[in-house]
């Protein structure tokens, strides 16, 4: 999803009350409201593939799997984002109606327009969530998954998964699957940059 800034500035509560009345989804960062626009079909396919697999894996285990229509709050005062996929196993989120504050796993499917933000500022904000154990970035243009995990020393470590990897592992929820499952039915954009011209 792509966020576009709107000129209005609001308090966190004003934003939460106002957004409920809007036909579009909006993220919220430091008083600024950002309108969300639609993603690509490959982007949606990847998020749906992962969310479906996680839902099956976590059924009956007291965890909630959410997709792009559910907000995560870094704190009660924001920022507020719409992750592509999110899992919370925290009892405090089980009855949440508008916002989840205690996820253990957040996943963003990358697009060229949001990749720098997802890797930078958004990840810095997400790291402030005390319950977060893993942050996953999935490339929508090629088979590539990056998983940032917090270790026992409180440091974030990167594990990258490519088509050569046997399985993608998400240790926060004891889940593993072939990388090909995440990309099932995904048609990658054509890349003609590697073709050699006959001229």
TrEMBL record:
Putative restriction endonuclease domain: which residues? 13-170
Q: Which UniProt keywords apply?
A: Endonuclease, Hydrolase, Nuclease
Instruction: Read off the InterPro entries from this record.
Output: Nuclease_put_TT1808, Restrct_endonuc-II-like, Uma2
CDD domains recorded: DUF820-like
What GO molecular functions are on record for this protein? endonuclease activity
Origin: domain of life: Bacteria
Keyword Zinc-finger present in the record's keywords: the answer is no
A Pfam family hit: Uma2
Q: Per its record, how is this protein called by name?
A: Uma2 family endonuclease
